[in-house]
Structure formats: structure tokens, C-alpha cells
UniProtKB/TrEMBL annotation, chain A:
It comes from Sulfobacillus benefaciens. The gene is hisF. Pathway: Amino-acid biosynthesis; L-histidine biosynthesis; L-histidine from 5-phospho-alpha-D-ribose 1-diphosphate: step 5/9. This is Imidazole glycerol phosphate synthase subunit HisF. It is an enzyme of class 4 (lyase). Its main location: cytoplasm. GO terms for molecular function: imidazoleglycerol-phosphate synthase activity; lyase activity.
Automatic annotation (TrEMBL), chain B:
GO terms for biological process: L-histidine biosynthetic process. InterPro entries: Class_I_gatase-like, GATASE, Imidazole-glycPsynth_HisH. This is Imidazole glycerol phosphate synthase subunit HisH. It comes from Sulfobacillus benefaciens. IGPS catalyzes the conversion of PRFAR and glutamine to IGP, AICAR and glutamate. The HisH subunit catalyzes the hydrolysis of glutamine to glutamate and ammonia as part of the synthesis of IGP and AICAR. The resulting ammonia molecule is channeled to the active site of HisF. Residues 5-195 form the Glutamine amidotransferase domain. Transmembrane segments: none annotated. One of its GO terms (molecular function) is imidazoleglycerol-phosphate synthase activity.
Length: 252, 208
């Protein structure tokens, strides 16, 4: 059976990693390529690279970095953040991304999802969704969780799946940053709504949180603060999950 | 060594080309007939949909050349969709190269694509497993699977809700359903094993 994926997330701005520069055995570098390679060597199952691209110069820097990361990385690389055109997707893929992650622009212009899926295949398209509990349902937010959209989570997941999403990266606004654990009810709900893999994001503060999500049937989990603030390496995290009896890719 | 990587669409070939370069190779991409030159091996990469591949290969003047290469016994590695192309036709829509009898059908699973690292149970026959440590674990991303008419060509099986071929060998064709170019050190070793066979077809490198 397929092994749950442990996926570190790199937040990159102006060509530097904006979070997560603490490694026991790595100098405070902030170089996203160096960090991606370190994650890969440590046992990451994939890398998600979220780029905050504000200017044309940023975009060029980031394409060059993505190419350098691809040349060195032997695991899948998903790149997202600020994608606003098929041309931008094309450039990211040409520079070595295996998949692209689209969030806000997909909500504003859902046709782009179908365009990407038709041209490069559904396996290439990760649809990132930020959602928040509101009364009896979950509401979708855009612009990094700042803007409320009219869409309910179930409607948007189904629509994006029909348009060609090969995977979802689902962040709970309620649990993100709390380090109190993933939003298991939201993830459970999403898994019932769609038949695509869902990557859990937001709230993991310790290895038990990862284990609970995986034990529930979660196929993939995204790591951010657990790596950046708890000073754990991917290897240490995977070793602990393995010792808990989870069927992950470990030892490498 | 001359390695031709076939681009039969809007191929996203970056990972495969990078993996080959890390092995010290300088692969060249063949998109149309004008890209054809002498080659020691062909690699069919594994992205996209089978739908439009055959018409495109014909339109771009590659179909006849590919058949000649196969008849001449040039080792060919098919990865994911590249392996599926060896067969007759796909439930995804679209025809294959008809090099191997059999079809391509959708995996029977509640969550698709099958994405992630999974193990391969190898048959005792020789394949490209030399110097790999069991359990063989590779990265998969696919919705469809092959159903060879001849089960004797299967060299490895993988399970995701159902069991399907993950590796096959029908000289000069090698096929893998997983992506060696995305499978860390295991994938690099497997690609290297393939290249060693290309370089030394009569050696003992195929064993193991």
C-alpha cells in the first residue's frame, strides 16, 4: 500500500527562505536550494516550495532557484504561490517543477485549472485551498486566508476536482499556526467529498499530530513549523513515526 | 553514451533529464524527425495522457524510427505512461504502439491518482534491481495500469487497493510504472543499472 507522504514546505521570498532556518547541522543559510536538498537527503518524500513573487525580478530569481533545486533534487517538487497565468505555469515546469500548486487564481479564474490539467495532465495540478469553519459548514478563503470567498469547501473541492485537480493541499485557517494539531474533522470531511489525495496542512506541533492524521487515513501531511520551530529534522520525525509503527518510507 | 529521451507532447521532462545528468549523461530530447540521430538507447518518459501520443508521434515523423529502433534491439526504457505506450490501447482513450499485447485500464481504487512511495515485490527473474536494497521502494503517480496479455513479462508487482505490474521486461523493452527519476537514491540506482546494460549488453550486469 502507498506510504503516507511527509512533505516539508519551504516559504520563499525574494529568493530566500522566510521561515525555518534552524538545523542542527546546517548553518543558518536561508538558501532554499540548500534547504530543499537537505530535506531530500533527510528523507522528505516530496518538497512543496511556496514562492512569494512580488516583482518581475523576483520571478526571474525564483525560476533560476527552481532550476538549481531540480538539478539537485531526486524527489518530486511542487511549486506554488502567485501563479496567475498558464505562461507562468509553463515557466515553472520548464525550470523543473513536477507539479504546480494554484490557490487564489484558481478561485478567480477556474478555467486555468482545466487548462493546466488538459495540457500537462491532472497529476501536475495541485489545488491549494484555505478554509475555515463557519457555523455548520466550511468556507473557502483566498489571498493567503485574508479574503472570504462566496464558496463553500465542498462545492469548491468538487468543482476543482471536475476541472482536473490531481491533488488538494488543504489548509485549515482555524488550526494553522496553533501547533495544536491538524484540523482532523475538516480533513475527514474533505476526504469524503473528493476522491483525490488530500495533503493536510496547518496545525502540526508535534510528531503525535502527524501520527494521528496518518492513522486516520491521511495520505500526505505538510510540515512547516514542526521543522522550523521545534528544531526537528525530517529524519528525526520519520524515525519517531516509524517507531510508532507507521508504514512510512523509513529507513531510506 | 547517446541517450534519446522522447518528447511526445507537452512533456515535462525536467526531472528525468536532471536525473540522467546527475549520472554523468548528456541526454538529448527527440521531439520531431529532425532531432533524430544515432542513439544507444531510448527513454520514454512518463508524463501526460496517452490520448494524443500516437497521432503526435506519427505527425512528427517518429513512429517509423521508433519501430526500427525496437526491431534493431536498441534497449528502450518506458517510464509510467512511457511503459503504458508499449501496449495496444488505453481506457483513457488513445492507442499505444502495439509492441506488447495487452491493454491499459484504470486502477480500481477510491482515491486516484495513486500518488506516493510504494513498494515493489520483484519476481526472481533478472531485471534492473542490482545493488538495490529490499523492500524496493519507488515514487508512483498514475491513474492507469497495464494489463499485459503475457504475465511472463512481469518483473515486479505493486499493491494499491489492487495489485498491478510495476516492472516488466520483454527484450529490448524495459518498463516501470514508477518514476525512477523521482525516487531518490533507489531510482538513481535503477537508472544506472539500465544504463550499464545499454553500455554492456552482453555483460552480466542484468542479473540481480
Amino acid at each position: 500500500m502507498v506510504k503516507p507522504r511527509i512533505i516539508p514546505c519551504l516559504d520563499v521570498k525574494h529568493g530566500r527562505v522566510v521561515k525555518g532556518v534552524n538545523f542542527n547541522d546546517l548553518r543558518d543559510s536561508g538558501d532554499p536550494v540548500e534547504m530543499a536538498v537537505k530535506y531530500c537527503d533527510d528523507g522528505a518524500d516530496e518538497i512543496v516550495w511556496l514562492d512569494i513573487v512580488a516583482t518581475v525580478e523576483d520571478e526571474e530569481i525564483s525560476l533560476d532557484l527552481i532550476q538549481r533545486a531540480r538539478d539537485a533534487l531526486s524527489i518530486p517538487l511542487t511549486v506554488g504561490g502567485g501563479i496567475r497565468s498558464v505562461r507562468h505555469v509553463e515557466q515553472l515546469l520548464e525550470h523543473g517543477a513536477d507539479k504546480v500548486s494554484i490557490n487564489t487564481y484558481g478561485l478567480e479564474n477556474p478555467a486555468i485549472l482545466a487548462q493546466v490539467a488538459q495540457r500537462w495532465g491532472e497529476q501536475c495540478l495541485v489545488v491549494a485551498v484555505d478554509a475555515k469553519r463557519e457555523g455548520d459548514h466550511y468556507q473557502v478563503y483566498s489571498h493567503g486566508g485574508r479574503t472570504r470567498t462566496p464558496r463553500h469547501l465542498d462545492e469548491w473541492l468538487r468543482e476543482a476536482q471536475d476541472l482536473g485537480a490531481g491533488e488538494f493541499l488543504l489548509t485549515s485557517i482555524d488550526t494553522d499556526g496553533t501547533q495544536q494539531g491538524y484540523d482532523l474533522p475538516m480533513l475527514r470531511y474533505a476526504r469524503q467529498v473528493v476522491h483525490r489525495p488530500v495533503i493536510a496542512s496547518g496545525g502540526a506541533g508535534n510528531v503525535d499530530h502527524l501520527a494521528s492524521a496518518i492513522q486516520e487515513g491521511q495520505q500526505a501531511v505538510l510540515l512547516a513549523s514542526l521543522l522550523h520551530e521545534q528544531h526537528l529534522t525530517i529524519g528525526q520525525i520519520k524515525k519517531q513515526l516509524f517507531e510508532k509503527g507507521l508504514d512510512i518510507r523509513w529507513p531510506l | 553514451m547517446e541517450i534519446a529521451v522522447i518528447d511526445y507532447g507537452n512533456g515535462n521532462l525536467g526531472s528525468l533529464l536532471a536525473a540522467l545528468r546527475r549520472l554523468g549523461q548528456r541526454p538529448h530530447v527527440v521531439r520531431t524527425a529532425k532531432d533524430i540521430r544515432h542513439t544507444d538507447t531510448l527513454i520514454f518518459p512518463g508524463v501526460g495522457s496517452m490520448n494524443s501520443v500516437l497521432p503526435r508521434l506519427k505527425d512528427h515523423g517518429l513512429f517509423g524510427w521508433l519501430n526500427e529502433m525496437r526491431s534493431a534491439g536498441v534497449p528502450i526504457l518506458g517510464i509510467c505512461l512511457g511503459m503504458q505506450l508499449f501496449f495496444d490501447e488505453s481506457a483513457e482513450g488513445g492507442e499505444g504502439l502495439h509492441w506488447l499485447p495487452g491493454n491499459v485500464t484504470q486502477i480500481d481504487a477510491p482515491i486516484l491518482p495513486h500518488i506516493g512511495w510504494n513498494t515493489v515485490d520483484a519476481t526472481p527473474d533478472s531485471f534492473l534491481w542490482r545493488n538495490l536494497t529490499e523492500p524496493y521502494t519507488f515514487y508512483f503517480v498514475h491513474t492507469y495500469r497495464v494489463q499485459p496479455a503475457d504475465p511472463g513479462i512481469v518483473r515486479g508487482l505493486t499493491q494499491y487497493y489492487e495489485t498491478f505490474p510495476a516492472a516488466l521486461y520483454a527484450p529490448p523493452l524495459y518498463g516501470v510504472q514508477f518514476h525512477p527519476e523521482l525516487s531518490g537514491t533507489s531510482g538513481a540506482q535503477l537508472l544506472n543499472n539500465f544504463l550499464e546494460i545499454v553500455e554492456d549488453p552482453h555483460g552480466n550486469l542484468a542479473s540481480g
